[in-house]
Write a structure and sequence with these properties.
12% of the residues lie in helices and 28% in strands. By secondary structure, the protein is of the alpha+beta class.
Length: 104
């Protein structure tokens, strides 16, 4: 991740913006924390395990190219993502997101 590029890149990104990315190998076993995504930007993206199906076999495979939505950004040089394809989301995503964020 390029921390120096983050202050210039972040203002050009918005919550809910769609980005295409390639799923990268994780340094941790599947199902532990998240999946990492190459967005072809100076910083990487990742999808938190809380947004993914409970069954890690349903997660997008390493090398899969798919669309993601920007879920969260803060001062850290990282982009938290949500898969656009509902097949890659937790089964109760809409209900969970409404409770967690107040909207899906």
């Amino acid at each position: 991740m390029n921390a120096e590029a983050w202050p210039r890149l972040r203002p050009r990104l918005t919550l809910g913006q769609r980005l295409q990315g390639t799923v990268l190998p994780s340094p941790w076993p599947a199902g532990v924390t998240s999946i990492f995504v190459d967005l072809r930007l100076p910083v990487a993206g990742f999808v938190d395990v809380l947004l993914l199906p409970q069954d890690a076999d349903r997660w997008p495979a390493v090398g899969a190219v798919t669309d993601f939505e920007i879920w969260w950004m803060d001062e850290r040089p990282q982009i938290r993502l949500k898969p656009v394809d509902p097949a890659y989301l937790r089964d109760d995503y809409t209900e969970w997101a409404t409770r967690f964020r107040g909207y899906a």
